[in-house]
Amino acid sequence: MRLWSTLRGSLWNILGATLMLAGVALVAVNAQSVLDFNAVAAHHGGRVTDLGHDATPQAGQHGHMVRVVAVPTVVEAPRDPEFNLSANTPVLTRKVEMFQWREVRIGNSTHYELDWVDHWIDASRFDDPHGHANPAQFPLSSQRFDAGRVQMGGFRLSSALQHALPGLAPVAPDLAALPANLAASFSRHGNYLQTSARADNPQLGDIRVSWDEIPLRTTTIVARLDGDRLLPAPDAADGQGYQVAMGDVGVLELFPDLPTPPRAVMASRVWGVLLTVLGAFALLSVRRRVLAVTAQTPLRTSRWNDLLLALGLGVLSASGVAGAVWLGTDNQYAMFWLALALAGGALAVWQWRCRH
What we know:
By secondary structure, the protein is of the alpha+beta class. It has three domains: 2-39 and 262-355, no CATH class; 45-70 and 219-254, no CATH class; 73-213, no CATH class. It contains seven helices and 17 strands. The protein has helices at residues 2-43, 159-164, 180-183, 251-254, 265-294, 303-326, 331-355, and strands at residues 48-53, 65-70, 73-76, 79-80, 85-86, 91-106, 109-117, 143-146, 149-152, 155-157, 169-171, 187-189, 192-194, 207-213, 219-226, 229-231, 243-246. Strands 1, 2, 3, 9, 10, 15, 16 and 17 form an eight-stranded mixed sheet that branches. Helix 5 packs across helix 6 (303-326). The model has no long low-confidence stretch (mean pLDDT 86).
């Protein structure tokens, strides 16, 4: 009988110690997983709040990194004033090309050909400039025209995010909308306006103009929220502070270096503290039996006092470990855990003194 009592006490001691270690380990692993995830998220601007499709600004979101999915809406369309061309797009880009001589070198061989080029070529620098002179300058320049306002759901896009929207599509010019002076000089050939009489027979110095737009389709954006504006996070260590992709794309696809987000964070913390408390209670129960059998010290307290002591020891152990993990990374969070550990220690000391 005495052997069985000793064996049962040993098993309870093992169980109590195991529960306490498991609880402390669960709290520590939980804290470290949150820290690891937050560290990588901070590299891209911070932890992302997923707002989903066609979201609108809500209280408490200011300064957060958010994920928004929507089809962009152009409120104030961009316009090319010289050609009187407008399009329902976040960004309208005009491309101007001139038919010019260009020098082509292949190994030790050099030859010259006429081609459409989007910048002026200084023919005086050619190895053989004779007979290959280009016009002195471009009469027009390539330009980009931004929409005055673009929305993603209830959020306005900053100009940087407008320019980051993916995709390009040609814009068909409207010859009838051209100012009179340009209508006399240009002809339409497909998606181009050209000064050439025939599209297949351009002459030296002819100009060709085309436009591209960013098409409006379902887009995912992760960016910093400032009021009702989405903009890049200026403090992101990756130097970008945002992500833009076509379609409905998840956060882990946009940031493949992110670890899997920790799940049930609060539940894991509660379970960790609870296991530590149960382990401490098991160890105290064994001590109560031993003292009751040997009658070494009369206990003037009940199991309720044992439970309070176990609660203090469990909170002290689990919270102290969590505070140590957070210390140096997020001191505000660390102070919370250490204050909780201090409260647990105070409860444990009070109950220990009540026991004897």
